[in-house]
């Protein structure tokens, strides 16, 4: 797997990047905490929060938008001046990464992602959470759990290839634990 040329490993350095960034991409497996993190950063820095699930991918009742329409929406969103976009789909990296100042890759262990998805389902059972499209009632099924379980194996090579091809100079921070996520948020809550 190719190495990420612009990887940032120091959380304090990452926090400085985030403070200066106008456009950020937060990606990772479902249940890892990327939506929560994105919303906290959006609130802290006055960025428009864009949820790929809510704003691009899904229509009410878990109906997926046509790909051409999805792409047109992504193009429209990335043309904004200040945003944080929560979503992994590598098929739009060619549009998103050239406009991105900083990438946060939420790369939690798969059991933590399973736990995150299941606990989120319990919390929102019978309702639609705010970062989902209207009418997409929170659900967990075996197909979704299998997607999470195999995410690292199936998607990581595509994510890395997309980062290398479309954003080789975009700084990337990988968060691999809840502790790292909390440390980053703590650094971001302090005055610069």
From TrEMBL:
Record-linked InterPro entries: Cytidylate_Kinase-2, P-loop_NTPase
Parts of the chain that traverse the membrane: none
Organism superkingdom: Bacteria
Protein name per UniProt: AAA family ATPase
């Amino acid at each position: 797997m190719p190495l990420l040329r612009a990887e940032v490993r120091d959380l304090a350095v990452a926090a400085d990047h985030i403070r200066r960034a106008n456009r950020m991409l937060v990606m990772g497996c479902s249940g890892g905490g990327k939506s929560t993190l994105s919303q906290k950063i959006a609130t802290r820095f006055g960025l428009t929060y864009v949820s790929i699930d809510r704003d691009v991918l899904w229509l009410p009742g878990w109906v997926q938008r046509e790909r051409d329409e999805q792409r047109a929406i992504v193009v429209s969103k990335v043309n904004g001046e200040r945003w944080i976009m929560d979503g992994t789909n590598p098929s739009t990296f060619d549009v998103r990464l050239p406009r991105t100042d900083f990438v946060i890759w939420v790369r939690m262990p798969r059991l933590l992602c399973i736990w995150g998805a299941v606990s989120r389902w319990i919390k929102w059972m019978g309702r639609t959470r705010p970062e989902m499209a209207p009418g997409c009632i929170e659900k967990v099924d075996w197909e979704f759990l299998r997607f999470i379980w195999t995410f690292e194996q199936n998607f990581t090579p595509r994510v890395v290839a997309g980062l290398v091809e479309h954003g080789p100079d975009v700084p990337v921070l990988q968060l691999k634990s809840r502790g790292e996520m909390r440390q980053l948020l703590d650094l971001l809550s302090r005055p610069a």
